[in-house]
Amino acid sequence: MSVPFQSTAIIGAGLMGRLMAVTLAQAGCKVSLYEAGSADAEGAAARVAAAMLAPLAESAVAPVSVVRMGHYALSRWPELLAPLAQPVFFQREGTLVLWHRQDATEAARLERVLAHTATQVPELAPMQALDSAGIAALEPSLGQHFAKGLFLPGEGQLDNRALLASLLATLQGNPNVTLHWQSPHVPADFSPGAPGQPDWVIDCRGLGARPQWRALRGVRGEVIRVHAPEVTLRRPTRLVHPRYPLYIAPKPDHLFVIGATEIESDDMSPASVRSTLELLSAAYAVHSGFAEARIVEIATQCRPTLPDNLPAIRQPQPRVLQINGLYRHGFMIAPALLDAAMELLTHGQSALAQGFGMDTTTSDDA
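The chain above was modelled as a monomer; its predicted structure follows.
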Protein backbone atom coordinates (compact mmCIF):
# COMPACT_ATOMS: atom_id res chain seq x y z
CA MET A 1 0.00 0.00 0.00
CA SER A 2 1.20 3.51 -0.80
CA VAL A 3 -0.10 6.80 0.55
CA PRO A 4 -0.49 10.14 -1.24
CA PHE A 5 1.68 12.07 1.21
CA GLN A 6 5.26 11.93 2.41
CA SER A 7 5.34 12.52 6.15
CA THR A 8 3.25 12.19 9.28
CA ALA A 9 3.52 12.91 12.99
CA ILE A 10 1.87 10.34 15.26
CA ILE A 11 1.14 11.28 18.85
CA GLY A 12 0.92 8.40 21.30
CA ALA A 13 2.89 5.14 21.12
CA GLY A 14 0.36 2.69 22.50
CA LEU A 15 -1.17 -0.05 20.41
CA MET A 16 -2.82 2.17 17.77
CA GLY A 17 0.10 4.58 17.57
CA ARG A 18 2.59 1.77 16.96
CA LEU A 19 0.36 0.01 14.44
CA MET A 20 -0.18 3.24 12.52
CA ALA A 21 3.53 4.07 12.60
CA VAL A 22 4.61 0.64 11.33
CA THR A 23 1.98 0.57 8.59
CA LEU A 24 2.76 4.07 7.32
CA ALA A 25 6.52 3.49 7.46
CA GLN A 26 6.13 0.26 5.51
CA ALA A 27 4.20 2.28 2.91
CA GLY A 28 7.26 4.53 2.48
CA CYS A 29 6.02 7.45 4.59
CA LYS A 30 8.38 9.35 6.88
CA VAL A 31 7.03 8.90 10.42
CA SER A 32 7.81 10.88 13.56
CA LEU A 33 6.33 9.13 16.61
CA TYR A 34 5.92 11.18 19.81
CA GLU A 35 5.23 9.59 23.19
CA ALA A 36 4.85 11.27 26.57
CA GLY A 37 6.29 8.22 28.33
CA SER A 38 9.08 5.78 27.60
CA ALA A 39 9.49 3.09 24.98
CA ASP A 40 8.16 0.50 27.45
CA ALA A 41 4.56 1.70 26.95
CA GLU A 42 4.12 1.73 30.70
CA GLY A 43 1.23 4.18 30.47
CA ALA A 44 -0.61 2.45 27.63
CA ALA A 45 -3.88 0.62 28.23
CA ALA A 46 -2.59 -2.03 25.82
CA ARG A 47 0.10 -3.06 28.31
CA VAL A 48 -2.54 -4.14 30.85
CA ALA A 49 -4.71 -6.43 28.76
CA ALA A 50 -5.44 -10.07 28.02
CA ALA A 51 -5.45 -9.41 24.25
CA MET A 52 -8.25 -11.86 23.55
CA LEU A 53 -9.69 -11.86 20.04
CA ALA A 54 -13.16 -13.10 20.90
CA PRO A 55 -15.94 -11.39 18.92
CA LEU A 56 -18.72 -13.85 19.76
CA ALA A 57 -17.78 -14.04 23.44
CA GLU A 58 -17.59 -10.25 23.65
CA SER A 59 -21.07 -9.91 22.14
CA ALA A 60 -22.32 -10.43 25.68
CA VAL A 61 -21.40 -6.77 26.21
CA ALA A 62 -20.64 -5.47 22.72
CA PRO A 63 -22.91 -4.47 19.81
CA VAL A 64 -22.91 -6.16 16.43
CA SER A 65 -20.66 -3.50 14.88
CA VAL A 66 -17.86 -4.38 17.32
CA VAL A 67 -18.44 -8.09 16.72
CA ARG A 68 -17.97 -7.54 12.98
CA MET A 69 -14.77 -5.57 13.60
CA GLY A 70 -13.51 -8.42 15.78
CA HIS A 71 -14.32 -11.03 13.18
CA TYR A 72 -12.47 -8.97 10.56
CA ALA A 73 -9.43 -8.76 12.84
CA LEU A 74 -9.11 -12.53 13.31
CA SER A 75 -7.87 -12.98 9.76
CA ARG A 76 -6.09 -9.62 9.64
CA TRP A 77 -3.83 -10.13 12.64
CA PRO A 78 -1.62 -12.83 11.02
CA GLU A 79 -1.02 -10.49 8.09
CA LEU A 80 0.01 -7.69 10.44
CA LEU A 81 2.26 -9.93 12.54
CA ALA A 82 4.10 -11.61 9.65
CA PRO A 83 6.47 -8.73 8.71
CA LEU A 84 7.31 -7.69 12.29
CA ALA A 85 10.89 -7.87 13.55
CA GLN A 86 10.17 -10.35 16.34
CA PRO A 87 7.73 -13.29 16.58
CA VAL A 88 4.52 -12.73 18.56
CA PHE A 89 2.47 -15.49 20.19
CA PHE A 90 -0.85 -15.80 18.34
CA GLN A 91 -3.37 -18.62 18.32
CA ARG A 92 -6.94 -19.38 17.33
CA GLU A 93 -7.87 -22.29 19.58
CA GLY A 94 -11.30 -20.88 20.35
CA THR A 95 -12.89 -19.73 23.61
CA LEU A 96 -14.21 -22.08 26.30
CA VAL A 97 -17.14 -20.80 28.41
CA LEU A 98 -17.86 -22.63 31.68
CA TRP A 99 -20.14 -22.24 34.67
CA HIS A 100 -20.92 -23.82 37.99
CA ARG A 101 -24.33 -25.38 38.51
CA GLN A 102 -25.59 -22.49 40.64
CA ASP A 103 -24.98 -20.13 37.74
CA ALA A 104 -26.89 -22.14 35.13
CA THR A 105 -29.57 -19.45 34.80
CA GLU A 106 -27.00 -16.80 33.97
CA ALA A 107 -25.35 -19.21 31.53
CA ALA A 108 -28.67 -19.81 29.77
CA ARG A 109 -29.12 -16.06 29.39
CA LEU A 110 -25.63 -15.75 27.91
CA GLU A 111 -26.27 -18.61 25.50
CA ARG A 112 -29.38 -16.84 24.22
CA VAL A 113 -27.38 -13.64 23.66
CA LEU A 114 -24.67 -15.49 21.76
CA ALA A 115 -27.23 -17.36 19.67
CA HIS A 116 -28.88 -14.06 18.74
CA THR A 117 -25.48 -12.64 17.74
CA ALA A 118 -24.91 -15.66 15.53
CA THR A 119 -28.08 -14.87 13.58
CA GLN A 120 -26.89 -11.29 13.04
CA VAL A 121 -23.30 -12.21 12.11
CA PRO A 122 -23.66 -15.59 10.38
CA GLU A 123 -20.03 -15.58 9.22
CA LEU A 124 -18.98 -16.39 12.80
CA ALA A 125 -18.19 -20.04 13.49
CA PRO A 126 -21.20 -21.61 15.24
CA MET A 127 -20.87 -22.17 18.96
CA GLN A 128 -21.01 -25.70 20.33
CA ALA A 129 -22.71 -26.94 23.49
CA LEU A 130 -20.49 -29.22 25.57
CA ASP A 131 -21.01 -31.83 28.25
CA SER A 132 -18.26 -32.89 30.66
CA ALA A 133 -16.76 -35.25 28.09
CA GLY A 134 -16.69 -32.48 25.49
CA ILE A 135 -15.01 -30.15 27.96
CA ALA A 136 -12.43 -32.81 28.82
CA ALA A 137 -11.68 -33.36 25.14
CA LEU A 138 -10.74 -29.67 24.84
CA GLU A 139 -9.21 -29.14 28.27
CA PRO A 140 -8.49 -32.47 30.00
CA SER A 141 -7.88 -30.84 33.37
CA LEU A 142 -11.36 -29.26 33.50
CA GLY A 143 -13.75 -32.00 32.40
CA GLN A 144 -14.24 -33.46 35.89
CA HIS A 145 -15.12 -30.09 37.40
CA PHE A 146 -17.74 -28.77 34.98
CA ALA A 147 -20.82 -30.55 33.66
CA LYS A 148 -21.67 -28.14 30.85
CA GLY A 149 -20.02 -25.46 28.77
CA LEU A 150 -19.88 -23.70 25.42
CA PHE A 151 -17.12 -23.74 22.85
CA LEU A 152 -16.69 -20.79 20.48
CA PRO A 153 -14.43 -22.07 17.66
CA GLY A 154 -11.97 -19.88 15.82
CA GLU A 155 -11.62 -17.20 18.47
CA GLY A 156 -8.09 -16.31 19.41
CA GLN A 157 -5.60 -14.32 21.39
CA LEU A 158 -2.11 -12.91 21.20
CA ASP A 159 0.60 -11.79 23.60
CA ASN A 160 0.04 -8.08 24.10
CA ARG A 161 3.44 -7.22 25.53
CA ALA A 162 5.31 -9.26 22.97
CA LEU A 163 3.35 -7.42 20.28
CA LEU A 164 4.19 -3.99 21.71
CA ALA A 165 7.86 -5.00 21.90
CA SER A 166 7.88 -6.37 18.36
CA LEU A 167 6.22 -3.26 16.97
CA LEU A 168 8.88 -1.19 18.75
CA ALA A 169 11.72 -3.28 17.34
CA THR A 170 10.21 -2.97 13.86
CA LEU A 171 10.02 0.81 14.19
CA GLN A 172 13.58 1.01 15.49
CA GLY A 173 14.80 -0.90 12.45
CA ASN A 174 12.96 1.22 9.87
CA PRO A 175 14.92 4.20 8.48
CA ASN A 176 11.65 6.03 7.77
CA VAL A 177 10.90 6.30 11.50
CA THR A 178 12.08 8.81 14.09
CA LEU A 179 11.12 8.04 17.70
CA HIS A 180 10.67 10.72 20.35
CA TRP A 181 10.27 9.44 23.93
CA GLN A 182 9.37 11.56 26.95
CA SER A 183 7.99 14.03 24.42
CA PRO A 184 4.36 14.97 25.13
CA HIS A 185 2.56 16.73 22.30
CA VAL A 186 -0.92 17.76 21.21
CA PRO A 187 -2.16 18.25 17.64
CA ALA A 188 -2.02 22.05 18.06
CA ASP A 189 1.76 21.79 18.33
CA PHE A 190 1.90 21.10 14.59
CA SER A 191 0.80 22.91 11.43
CA PRO A 192 0.31 19.98 9.08
CA GLY A 193 0.84 20.79 5.42
CA ALA A 194 2.93 23.91 6.11
CA PRO A 195 6.58 24.06 5.02
CA GLY A 196 8.80 22.05 7.35
CA GLN A 197 5.78 20.42 8.98
CA PRO A 198 4.34 16.90 8.61
CA ASP A 199 1.70 16.37 5.95
CA TRP A 200 -0.62 14.73 8.51
CA VAL A 201 -0.96 14.51 12.31
CA ILE A 202 -2.51 11.37 13.79
CA ASP A 203 -3.56 11.49 17.44
CA CYS A 204 -3.58 8.05 19.12
CA ARG A 205 -3.18 9.13 22.75
CA GLY A 206 -6.12 7.30 24.33
CA LEU A 207 -7.12 9.04 27.55
CA GLY A 208 -4.28 11.48 27.04
CA ALA A 209 -6.45 13.12 24.37
CA ARG A 210 -9.25 13.95 26.80
CA PRO A 211 -8.48 17.70 26.90
CA GLN A 212 -9.12 17.81 23.14
CA TRP A 213 -11.85 15.12 23.06
CA ARG A 214 -13.96 15.94 26.05
CA ALA A 215 -16.39 13.02 25.73
CA LEU A 216 -13.65 10.52 26.60
CA ARG A 217 -13.82 8.83 29.97
CA GLY A 218 -11.79 6.15 31.70
CA VAL A 219 -13.14 2.68 32.47
CA ARG A 220 -10.94 0.95 34.99
CA GLY A 221 -9.77 -2.62 34.56
CA GLU A 222 -7.72 -4.84 36.83
CA VAL A 223 -5.74 -7.92 35.82
CA ILE A 224 -3.48 -10.35 37.62
CA ARG A 225 -0.60 -12.14 35.91
CA VAL A 226 0.42 -15.42 37.49
CA HIS A 227 2.95 -18.11 36.71
CA ALA A 228 1.26 -21.48 37.19
CA PRO A 229 3.41 -24.47 36.15
CA GLU A 230 0.73 -26.88 37.42
CA VAL A 231 -1.95 -25.45 35.12
CA THR A 232 -2.31 -26.35 31.47
CA LEU A 233 -4.96 -24.55 29.43
CA ARG A 234 -4.80 -24.37 25.65
CA ARG A 235 -7.26 -21.54 25.12
CA PRO A 236 -8.88 -18.56 26.89
CA THR A 237 -11.47 -19.75 29.37
CA ARG A 238 -14.37 -17.67 30.65
CA LEU A 239 -16.32 -18.39 33.81
CA VAL A 240 -19.94 -17.27 33.85
CA HIS A 241 -20.88 -15.44 37.03
CA PRO A 242 -23.76 -13.02 37.69
CA ARG A 243 -21.46 -10.33 39.06
CA TYR A 244 -17.94 -10.82 37.72
CA PRO A 245 -17.56 -12.90 34.54
CA LEU A 246 -13.97 -14.08 34.84
CA TYR A 247 -11.52 -14.75 32.02
CA ILE A 248 -8.26 -16.68 32.11
CA ALA A 249 -6.00 -16.17 29.12
CA PRO A 250 -3.01 -18.55 28.86
CA LYS A 251 0.22 -17.11 27.51
CA PRO A 252 3.50 -18.89 26.74
CA ASP A 253 5.53 -20.57 29.50
CA HIS A 254 2.57 -21.15 31.85
CA LEU A 255 1.89 -17.47 32.32
CA PHE A 256 -1.80 -16.63 32.74
CA VAL A 257 -3.65 -13.33 32.65
CA ILE A 258 -6.71 -13.30 34.93
CA GLY A 259 -9.26 -10.53 34.78
CA ALA A 260 -12.91 -9.61 35.21
CA THR A 261 -13.32 -6.26 36.85
CA GLU A 262 -14.73 -3.31 34.94
CA ILE A 263 -15.34 -0.18 36.96
CA GLU A 264 -16.73 3.15 35.74
CA SER A 265 -13.86 5.16 37.10
CA ASP A 266 -10.62 6.74 35.94
CA ASP A 267 -9.01 5.87 39.28
CA MET A 268 -5.51 4.54 38.64
CA SER A 269 -4.77 3.45 42.20
CA PRO A 270 -3.71 -0.15 42.90
CA ALA A 271 -6.24 -2.98 42.82
CA SER A 272 -8.43 -3.43 45.88
CA VAL A 273 -8.19 -6.41 48.22
CA ARG A 274 -11.76 -7.34 47.33
CA SER A 275 -11.25 -7.50 43.58
CA THR A 276 -7.94 -9.33 43.98
CA LEU A 277 -9.53 -11.96 46.21
CA GLU A 278 -12.45 -12.38 43.81
CA LEU A 279 -10.20 -12.83 40.80
CA LEU A 280 -7.90 -15.33 42.49
CA SER A 281 -10.75 -17.25 44.15
CA ALA A 282 -12.59 -17.57 40.86
CA ALA A 283 -9.44 -18.73 39.06
CA TYR A 284 -8.87 -21.34 41.77
CA ALA A 285 -12.47 -22.49 41.30
CA VAL A 286 -11.71 -23.12 37.63
CA HIS A 287 -8.45 -24.99 38.23
CA SER A 288 -7.04 -25.98 41.62
CA GLY A 289 -3.51 -25.72 40.19
CA PHE A 290 -3.75 -21.96 40.59
CA ALA A 291 -3.36 -22.47 44.35
CA GLU A 292 0.39 -22.92 43.87
CA ALA A 293 0.74 -20.21 41.22
CA ARG A 294 3.08 -17.30 41.83
CA ILE A 295 1.70 -13.80 41.42
CA VAL A 296 3.86 -11.98 38.90
CA GLU A 297 1.91 -8.73 38.75
CA ILE A 298 -1.33 -7.08 39.83
CA ALA A 299 -2.01 -4.24 37.43
CA THR A 300 -4.65 -1.58 36.86
CA GLN A 301 -5.32 0.63 33.89
CA CYS A 302 -8.10 2.79 32.48
CA ARG A 303 -9.38 2.17 28.97
CA PRO A 304 -10.31 5.19 26.83
CA THR A 305 -14.05 5.06 26.29
CA LEU A 306 -16.60 7.24 24.47
CA PRO A 307 -20.22 7.67 25.63
CA ASP A 308 -21.57 4.89 23.38
CA ASN A 309 -18.65 2.56 24.22
CA LEU A 310 -17.78 2.47 20.51
CA PRO A 311 -14.56 3.46 18.75
CA ALA A 312 -14.39 6.53 16.53
CA ILE A 313 -12.08 8.16 14.02
CA ARG A 314 -12.61 11.87 13.60
CA GLN A 315 -11.02 14.67 11.66
CA PRO A 316 -11.43 17.85 13.73
CA GLN A 317 -9.52 19.90 11.17
CA PRO A 318 -7.85 19.30 7.83
CA ARG A 319 -4.88 16.92 7.94
CA VAL A 320 -5.52 15.90 11.57
CA LEU A 321 -6.90 12.47 12.37
CA GLN A 322 -7.86 11.29 15.85
CA ILE A 323 -8.41 7.61 16.68
CA ASN A 324 -9.86 6.75 20.05
CA GLY A 325 -12.48 4.99 22.16
CA LEU A 326 -11.22 1.41 21.86
CA TYR A 327 -12.68 0.66 25.33
CA ARG A 328 -12.16 -2.98 26.40
CA HIS A 329 -11.89 -4.24 22.84
CA GLY A 330 -8.55 -2.72 21.83
CA PHE A 331 -6.71 -5.74 20.42
CA MET A 332 -9.90 -7.23 19.03
CA ILE A 333 -10.79 -4.21 16.90
CA ALA A 334 -7.45 -2.46 16.31
CA PRO A 335 -6.90 -3.95 12.81
CA ALA A 336 -10.32 -2.70 11.68
CA LEU A 337 -9.55 0.80 12.96
CA LEU A 338 -6.08 0.70 11.40
CA ASP A 339 -7.39 -0.25 7.97
CA ALA A 340 -10.26 2.24 8.13
CA ALA A 341 -7.82 5.01 9.07
CA MET A 342 -5.51 4.05 6.20
CA GLU A 343 -8.45 4.26 3.78
CA LEU A 344 -9.35 7.71 5.12
CA LEU A 345 -5.77 8.90 4.78
CA THR A 346 -5.43 7.49 1.28
CA HIS A 347 -8.84 8.15 -0.26
CA GLY A 348 -10.54 10.68 2.02
CA GLN A 349 -13.28 8.18 2.83
CA SER A 350 -13.53 4.62 4.11
CA ALA A 351 -15.92 1.97 2.84
CA LEU A 352 -14.66 -0.26 5.63
CA ALA A 353 -15.65 2.25 8.30
CA GLN A 354 -19.06 2.66 6.72
CA GLY A 355 -19.54 -1.09 6.65
CA PHE A 356 -18.79 -1.28 10.36
CA GLY A 357 -21.01 1.69 11.15
CA MET A 358 -17.94 3.43 12.55
CA ASP A 359 -18.11 7.11 13.46
CA THR A 360 -15.74 9.09 11.20
CA THR A 361 -17.12 12.54 11.93
CA THR A 362 -15.21 15.63 10.86
CA SER A 363 -16.64 17.87 13.59
CA ASP A 364 -14.88 18.89 16.78
CA ASP A 365 -17.96 18.70 18.96
CA ALA A 366 -17.65 16.59 22.11
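The chain has a mean pLDDT of 95.
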